[in-house]
Design goal:
single chain; 223 residues; alpha/beta; Rossmann fold; Arc Repressor Mutant, subunit A; 2 domains; four-stranded antiparallel sheet; 11 strands; 40% helix; elongated
Length: 223
């Protein structure tokens, strides 16, 4: 999943970037409101982490503009302001959640997971498709009761396909969710990750769940 962090305090931004990447997220950063505005419309993000106190364009102004333009990416506000009025303003202008600084990384990750599930209209943290089980909290996978070890990007790919099961996703759509602006890979790398994932998820099991739609993309079967 791909996250945009808009935070002008660089130690905080770098700590968030490092922590999120360790959890398998693709992370882009912006250090002011203008850069954040430009990046938010240049890619499709699964969630945006937005500081309120930003130079050039304030966080609330950014948020209000996005919602007026119809951008529906979930937005988590980070704020040092604990006032009820500030929180209410953020929620009224289109924020999906907020977190008051200082905070624990575990809480931020839990809120992100909930927002991403909500953005993909998935209610339960445990996804079941036939005999495949994906625990989005522990990031563990099993099929027919057998644990399956996945590399971080393989898990991210499977989670994306599961969130959008039944849909055919092309290389571009998948790449934009799995890789951030610093990646030097091309869209073709998606084929390689899908091949590795199919070998782990489908080999030795019935029915096969990940299908290739030639000329279109990849699909995880729906129930």
């Amino acid at each position: 999943m791909r996250v945009l962090v808009i935070e002008d305090y660089q130690p905080m931004a770098m700590a968030l970037k490092r922590g999120l990447r360790e959890e398998g997220y693709a992370v882009d950063t912006a250090r002011d409101g203008l850069e954040g505005k430009q990046k938010a419309v240049a890619a499709r993000y699964d969630v945006i982490i937005l500081d309120l106190m930003l130079p050039k364009i304030p966080g609330l102004q950014l948020l209000e503009g996005w919602r007026k333009q119809g951008m529906n990416a979930p937005v988590l506000i980070l704020t040092a302001r604990g006032d009820i009025e500030d929180r209410v303003q953020g929620l009224n202008r289109g924020a999906d959640d907020y977190l008051i600084k200082p905070f624990q990384m575990e809480e931020l990750l839990a809120r992100l997971r909930a927002l991403i599930r909500r953005g993909h209209r998935v209610k339960s943290p445990l996804i079941r498709i036939y005999d495949l089980e994906i625990d989005t909290i522990t990031r563990t996978v099993s099929r027919a009761g057998h644990p399956i070890e996945l590399a971080p990007l393989e898990y991210a790919l499977l989670e994306l396909l599961a969130f959008r099961r039944g849909e055919v996703l092309n290389r571009t759509q998948i790449w934009e969710h799995l890789f951030d602006e610093e990646s030097e890979t091309t869209y073709q790398v998606v084929d390689e990750y899908v091949r590795h994932l199919r070998a782990k998820i489908d080999h030795g099991f019935t029915p096969p769940l990940i299908s290739v739609k030639f000329g279109e993309g990849y699909q995880l079967r729906d129930d």
